[in-house]
From TrEMBL:
Family matches, as Gene3D superfamilies: Winged helix-like DNA-binding domain superfamily/Winged helix DNA-binding domain (1.10.10.10)
SUPFAM superfamilies the UniProt entry points to: Winged helix' DNA-binding domain (SSF46785)
Domain of life: Bacteria
Annotated ranges, domain HTH hxlR-type: 21-119
Protein name, per record: Helix-turn-helix domain-containing protein
Keywords, alphabetical: DNA-binding, Transcription, Transcription regulation
Pfam families reported for this sequence: HxlR
PROSITE patterns found in the cross-reference section: HTH_HXLR
PANTHER family xrefs: TRANSCRIPTIONAL REGULATOR, MARR FAMILY (PTHR33204), TRANSCRIPTIONAL REGULATORY PROTEIN (PTHR33204:SF18)
Family annotation (InterPro entries): HTH_HxlR, WH-like_DNA-bd_sf, WH_DNA-bd_sf
UniProt KW Heme keyword: no
């Protein structure tokens, strides 16, 4: 049995590295600049082209269109129509594309252990929500159950905690019932409280909490960053 004989222009696996390793192939699929961030911004639901670009202000319309086309051809992204009341074209992850979330979680958990990681850089609302799903301590959650409303500027998400799992979905402006609410102008405003463990009432902080304050405190205790890793050299 012969392997497929493909030209350099038409093949996908091996186009950069000529390497059978799955990790090498993964880099060929999502290793171009911006590709992983495009996938990240779609992880909590489909979005319009303009919304993706607004979340990634450093990307041009041309490059975003190219990345979406590449991801679509690879079977990671698909085009769809949004639900009512307005039906517009959106880009969404396929089932295989959504399966990248554990990969992004482990990559993020590994990277923040570096002392070079700078948490003061801009953070998108979706990135914040995914970081919560990454740094969530399911063992500490035990049998705790609640609904949580997150409002990051004009972007809203609803979290559901139960059975040791935290599910988060993007929602619209409609009213929702939640046990606890967290609201701040920007995603970075959540970090000092969720990860820095500063009291929400600390002067200068902009995170507002609504609902059951005791329950909110228990929820905040479920998030912690891994310790920083030393960059010392190993000498043989």
């Amino acid at each position: 049995m012969k392997l497929r004989n493909e030209t350099e222009e038409s093949r996908t696996h091996g186009k950069w590295y000529d390497d059978a390793c799955g990790a090498a192939f993964a880099m060929e699929l999502v290793g171009e600049r911006w590709s992983i961030l495009v996938v990240r911004e779609l992880m909590l639901g489909g979005r319009r082209f303009s919304d993706i670009r607004a979340s990634l202000p450093g990307i041009s319309a041309k490059v975003l269109a190219e990345r979406l086309a590449t991801l679509e051809s690879a079977g990671i992204v698909m085009r769809a129509r949004s639900g009512p009341p307005a039906s517009v074209q959106i880009y969404a992850l396929t089932d295989w594309g959504r399966a990248m979330e554990p990969v992004l979680q482990e990559l993020g958990r590994w990277a923040v252990q570096s002392p070079m990681h700078n948490p003061r850089l801009p953070l998108t609302p979706v990135s914040l929500m995914l970081s919560m799903r990454t740094m969530f301590d399911s063992d500490a959650a035990g049998g705790l159950a609640m609904t949580v409303l997150f409002e990051v500027g004009e972007t809203r998400f609803l979290g559901r905690l139960g059975d040791g799992e935290l599910a988060i979905e993007r929602i619209g402006p409609e009213a929702v019932a939640a046990d606890v609410g967290f609201r701040a102008p920007a995603a970075g405003d959540f970090l000092p409280v969720f990860y820095g463990k500063q009291p929400p009432e600390t002067p200068g902080l902009r995170l507002e909490i609504t609902g059951d304050r005791a329950l909110a405190g228990r929820f905040l205790d479920l998030f912690r960053l891994p310790p920083k890793h030393s960059h010392g050299c190993i000498v043989a």
